[in-house]
Amino acid sequence: MTEINQDFVDSVLHPRNPETNKNDYGRILCVCGSAGYTGAAYFSAQGAVRMGSGVVTLAVPQGAWPVLAVKLNEPVVRPMPQDENGLLSMDALPKLLALAEKADALLIGCGLGRSDTLTEIVCTLLEKAACQIVLDADGINSITGHKDILRRTAKPVVLTPHAGEFARLSGKPDATAADAAQFAQDYRCIVLYKGHRTRIFTPDGGCYRNTSGNPGMAKGGSGDVLAGMLVSLCGQGIDSVPAACTAAWLHGRAGDLAANVLSEYGMTPSDMLTQLPILLKRYNSKTW
């Protein structure tokens, strides 16, 4: 087992080349959100922005669009057709596929909701998207009955379940981290198994353990921030395994900084977004 620490992250992230533009830092597509669950979409998109993505596009049901278009300045927020329950409808699929063709990395699931239509949308995106995919929350729930699709994706998918989500996915109510490790090998995917000491399991049997984080991060929205950070790193051209490890450690350290300033009780995912850029200052191209 490899421990993820500052040295590990320093081996992944480096100062930026001055002669670059937004297209050099990844075009990210986040397929997230639904009526009543705009926070998850917000945090995932902002996590990608704060992690350094060049362009972030957030595709949401049209009913969620007015809220998110007002709250978000940096991401491009695209309204998509929805059903009577405020979830993405099948009419959204062609538009999502067109956006995915232009993306360097794709995040599916934060606040997406559940329906048979969403299951079909998620599975189609998994089968047809050529870029790196991160599957979180309801994206994971959507493939519970279709796990074999993970073996047919263009690149190994990164899944980010907590224990409850993985229990549903695996079909084992008492599933453990050992089951997650076996799942990664059986289904050719990377499993970022969230917990007090988050672990990342790889298709070839590798295991990495995160050493940062605290109980103050156990609040709605924290996982969405992590998913956005992870897809951002993938979109910037970092391989999925070091991207997952780096995102997990920086996410935990941002939580630690927030807890030191505001307490584990009082800190929020928004505070973690504020602390993340402070951690990233060490990778500036020069000292200002």
**Cα-based radius of gyration, to the nearest Å:** 18 Å
The end-to-end distance, rounded to whole angstroms, is 38 Å
Average pLDDT: 97
Number of helices: 11
Largest sheet data? 10 strands, mixed
Number of strands: 10
Question: What's the SSE pattern?
Answer: EHEHEHEHEHEHEHHEEEHHH
Poorly predicted runs: none
Structural class: alpha/beta
Give the fraction of residues assigned to helices: 40-55%
Strand content: 5-15%
**Overall 3D shape:** globular
Major sheet: order of its strands? 1-10-9-8-7-6-5-2-3-4
What does this 3D model show about the protein?
The chain has 288 residues and is an alpha/beta fold. It is built from eleven helices and ten strands. The protein has helices at 6-12, 38-50, 65-71, 93-101, 116-128, 138-142, 163-170, 177-186, 222-235, 240-262, 269-280; strands spanning 2-4, 27-31, 55-61, 76-80, 105-108, 132-135, 158-159, 190-193, 199-201, 207-210. It has a ten-stranded mixed β-sheet, sandwiched between helices. Strand 3, helix 3 (65-71) and strand 4 form a beta-alpha-beta unit. Helix 1 (6-12) crosses helix 10 (240-262), helix 4 (93-101) packs parallel to helix 5 and helix 10 (240-262) crosses helix 11. It is globular, with a radius of gyration of 18 Å.
